[in-house]
Design brief:
alpha/beta, four-stranded antiparallel β-sheet, globular
């Protein structure tokens, strides 16, 4: 009956078609990692079977084929996020790696003209995953800049007016998430980025939780850098990208020095290659890049709007069912364009809920979701989080809500 169980089978999400603890698996941990369709696994396997070789420095046929596959993947992914001629895409091992590249690359004191200097300000927000906070803490310490944090209201929402009060002539960087992974809140990042850019700041968007269904278009945003991970968008683990305006990427000191990122090397010195290779030192995960591009194709073939509408409907359904349970508070219940529902239950530890759900084959995530400052701001502890993807069904939402209700009866 449920439309998207057909999508699951058609997509070849074979890992989902299994029983866990004597129940059909309901995989509701997609904000942590999504499963991959068969098309992605086949694309990677075809690369490994026919084109495996190191890239960019071989004259032989396989090396050229591998280079073509890698660069074709780059082209596909640039188109996927709306990157134009003024943009470049750098492959990374994920969003964390991409954000570290930006934060470290802007705060290198050895750089001829370091972007971040003593007295400058970096602004991030309290909605961030630790990957978009801790690198900025380090960047501030390294450069002598000050780190300011834009805080949400009691409902976990960010307001452009508050940012307007925080930015000033010393603001050099503003970094914000496209969706808070701990609550599902989708901040008005278009407005926030525009405001920061107008104040002269470099802008950074963490799109890790958005790319699977609400893909930001970098050419329409005041966005200098955008980071995302492959494994949250139906692609392979350990893949991702940093997309940026060429001029902004040029200002970064590389994170990794060595082969592939140099033009010439003498005993005493080296000249670096141009973008994107300058920021891609060492042998990259070529099969991963091919798989990541196949995942972008999967999203486009399935339909971005269709995926977005589906996960939003599942989220609304879950919010409605869960918030009706006794003692349950759903965080950011009114969040728009969200695939994540996060809740706390009075007197019950989320790990106990998660454990009882697992006994019924339902996979959710429990804890602080690498976002301790946000939960502290909201005055809550660890939460239980369910998150949805194209293959999830309304029947699974019903199973989730029923199982939470039963767990609460046992635990409360
Ligand atoms: N940012 C956000 C909003 C995330 O949800 C995550 C992953 N949970 C990350 C960054 C880090 O992604 P990765 O672990 O793939 O580097």
């Amino acid at each position: 009956g449920d439309m998207m169980s057909a999508a699951m089978l058609a997509g070849g999400f074979h890992g989902l078609d299994q029983r866990v603890n004597d129940a059909p698996l309901a995989y509701l941990d997609n904000a942590a990692t999504t499963h991959m369709p068969l098309s992605v696994r086949q694309a990677m396997d075809a690369f490994e079977a026919h084109s495996r070789a190191n890239i960019h420095r071989g004259v032989h046929t396989l090396s050229q084929r591998a280079t073509d596959a890698f660069e074709q993947a780059r082209t596909t992914l640039k188109r996927f996020v709306g990157a134009g001629d003024a943009h470049e895409l750098v492959f990374t091992s994920g969003a964390t790696d991409a954000l570290n590249l930006v934060a470290s690359g802007l705060s290198d004191a050895a750089h001829a003209v370091p972007v971040l200097r003593p007295g400058d300000e970096i602004i991030t927000t309290a909605l961030e995953h630790h990957a978009n906070l801790v690198p900025w803490q380090l960047a501030a310490r390294r450069s002598g800049a000050e780190l300011l944090v834009l805080r949400p209201d009691a409902g976990g929402r960010l307001h452009p007016d508050d940012l307007a009060r925080l930015v000033g002539p010393r603001t050099r960087v503003f970094a914000v998430t496209a969706c808070a992974n701990a609550t599902g809140e989708r901040p008005p990042y278009e407005e926030l980025l525009a405001l920061a850019a107008e104040a002269g700041a470099l802008t950074v968007l963490d799109a890790a939780q958005a790319v699977a269904h609400d893909v930001p278009d970098v050419s329409r945003l005041d966005c200098d850098f955008m980071a995302f991970s492959g494994h949250k968008m139906y692609g392979p683990m350990g893949t991702g990208a940093l997309v940026g305006r060429r001029a902004a990427l040029e200002a970064l000191t590389p994170l990794r020095f060595g082969g592939d990122m140099v033009e010439w090397v003498s005993e005493a010195d080296a000249g670096f290659a141009g973008l994107p290779m300058r920021l891609e030192g060492g042998t990259p995960n070529v099969a991963g890049a091919v798989g990541l591009a196949a995942a972008a194709d999967f999203i486009d073939v399935t339909g971005r709007d269709r995926i977005d509408a589906h996960v939003r409907a599942l989220r609304s359904h879950a919010v409605q069912r869960l918030s009706a349970l006794p003692g349950v508070t759903v965080l950011a219940p009114d969040a728009t364009r969200s695939a994540i529902v996060s809740f706390v239950a009075r007197g019950v530890h989320p790990h106990d809920i998660g454990t009882l759900l697992d006994q019924r084959g339902i996979a959710v995530r429990t804890g602080h979701h690498c976002a301790q400052p946000l939960l502290a701001c909201l005055g809550v502890g660890p939460t239980t989080r369910a998150s949805f993807a194209i293959y999830n069904t309304h029947a699974e939402v019903e199973r989730l809500a029923d199982a939470v209700a039963q767990a609460l009866e046992v635990l409360q």
